[in-house]
Amino acid sequence: MTVSIGILGLGAVGTLMAHHWQQHCLYALTRQQQEASCRLEDEGSLATLHLPAWQGESLDWLLVCTKAAATLDALQLWRPRLAAVKRLLLLQNGMGQHQQVQQWLDQQGLSCELWAAISTEGAWRRDDGVIVRAGKGEILAGRIPISINSEKSPDTTVTAPAPCKTVDNIQQYQREKLAVNAVINPLTALYRCRNGELLEHPDYYPHFKALCAEIGDLYQQLGWPLAFDPLTRISAVAKATATNRSSTLQDHLAGRPDELAYITGYLLEQAAAATIELPLCAQLWQQVRGEPHPATLRATSNPVIP
Ligand code: PAF
């Protein structure tokens, strides 16, 4: 079945998704409100797609692939037309932005469904602007429960367009991906190294191992079950993506804002709310950002009185 899909954020991931969905009725939501061309190189062959500018036509899906921190500003820009959107699908790294978007939708009186997706597909932008598909993976999507903190399974009668696989507990998969990102992304940014070097370098590996353990403990204390042993899984991801520069390192090298507020920062917020110490994450944040995370400052300025 053909559906109508708008794409907001035509970077590497947005372009990859446009090519996956080329049989659907696609629209571009660019800052300049203009049509867009998306060029993708996949296994050596180059394909170009032309997406018309979205003029407010009814959308079954609005895919948001901006950086997590840019989500609300990007949506705000399109606010006058959002009543025409049935479902918002956020395909981004990190957690916490979904909560912010749901609150904003409620404030705005917008009733579109909120969905989240995570992807293990790889793509990067070459200097000439062409997006290069780096690795095949899986895209999982699911509806965020109405109350974002509820563990209740959402209605799954609607499914996201293939190749997205619709799952009924996307939060679980998001947390699993978050554990991976919370180790690989800040460490590669700190050491300015490729993912695989975290496993090989005699100074980086002990740090990697200790961080996996800290995050595993945190998940246990928060009651967030993991379907894997953190060290085993995160090592496997670092090995499978050994030659990649993580998205955070790419952001730093390009001088762009990164998503660590929605990765390490999100975990620090969750830990502080549950009065759990997270010393390695707190230290990493401080090393990468040059200042303590606000959640760690709150924790130290509000000592728990026995
Ligand atoms: O953010 C990233 O770069 C990726 O999610 C991952 C899995 C860390 C691989 O580089």
From TrEMBL:
SUPFAM superfamilies: 6-phosphogluconate dehydrogenase C-terminal domain-like, NAD(P)-binding Rossmann-fold domains
Domain Ketopantoate reductase N-terminal: 5-143
Protein EC: 1.1.1.169
Gene3D superfamilies according to UniProt: N-(1-d-carboxylethyl)-l-norvaline Dehydrogenase, domain 2, NAD(P)-binding Rossmann-like Domain
GO cellular component terms attached to this protein's record: cytoplasm
GO MF: 2-dehydropantoate 2-reductase activity; NADP binding
Residues in Ketopantoate reductase C-terminal domain copies: 169-289
Swiss-Prot/TrEMBL GO biological process terms: pantothenate biosynthetic process
Pfam family, one: ApbA_C
Family, similarity comment: Belongs to the ketopantoate reductase family.
Descriptive protein name: 2-dehydropantoate 2-reductase
Organism: Parathalassolituus penaei
